[in-house]
Design brief:
This protein is α+β, with helices and mostly antiparallel strands and 189 residues long. The chain has a single domain, classed as minor pseudopilin epsh fold, CATH 3.55.40. It has one helix and nine strands. The strands form two sheets. The chain has a five-stranded antiparallel β-sheet with strand order 3-2-1-5-6. The chain is elongated, with a radius of gyration of 26 Å. The mean pLDDT is 89.
């Protein structure tokens, strides 16, 4: 004859297990939140770094100065644009308020005639809404591989030093830095 078994879990066993699990889960939530924000920041920095690399390559291959404009037309947006005119004498349209708007300067361009400019503008890019640019001044990549940085209304823009300039992207108090030196080397840190 089989006797009923007393094995199993009591209500107290279940309550203790749930309490321990709840404590562990509560400890893990802040870590997961930090990991998510870190991933967003890293992804945004990689996207900006790729756009800078693309601008550098486009300048060399097209033999045209290519600029990367930050917070253009609004905060958190950036765009690779071909310089209209020359570095010493940019066309008035190059610094127009609508220069970063795809409605005025479409991507892809309406025509690819080398006599009309611009032909090498890229699409308008946006950072994740929780990210923003910290230090970021417009950069110009030249066909010879050198890099220049916007400085007020000075034309041509002055060279970036060999030590480089920083483009920073922030998420709250976290920061990622992309360094671009005067020789065109781009480093994500």
């Amino acid at each position: 004859m089989n006797r009923p078994s007393n094995s199993g879990f009591t209500l107290i066993d279940m309550m203790i297990t749930i309490a321990v699990f709840s404590i562990l889960a509560a400890m893990a939530v802040p870590s997961l939140k930090d990991m998510t924000s870190s991933m967003k920041l890293g992804q945004g920095a990689r996207e900006v770094e790729r756009e800078l690399q693309t601008a550098r390559l486009k300048a060399v291959t097209s033999n045209r100065p290519i600029r990367v404009r930050f917070n253009c037309p609004v905060a958190g947006q950036y765009r690779m644009v071909e310089l209209i005119g020359t570095p010493s004498v940019p066309d008035a349209n190059d610094s127009a308020a609508n220069r970063c708007q795809e409605s005025a300067y479409p991507y892809p361009p309406a025509d690819v005639n080398p006599l009309t400019r611009p032909n090498h503008d890229g699409p308008l890019r946006r950072l994740n809404s929780s990210l923003s640019f910290g230090a970021a001044t417009d950069l110009e990549f030249c066909p010879d591989g050198s890099v220049h940085q916007k400085s007020g209304t000075t034309n041509p823009w002055p060279n970036v030093s060999t030590a480089g300039t920083a483009v920073t992207i922030t998420y709250g108090t976290s920061v990622k830095t992309i360094t671009v030196n005067g020789l065109g080397k781009i480093t994500l840190q």
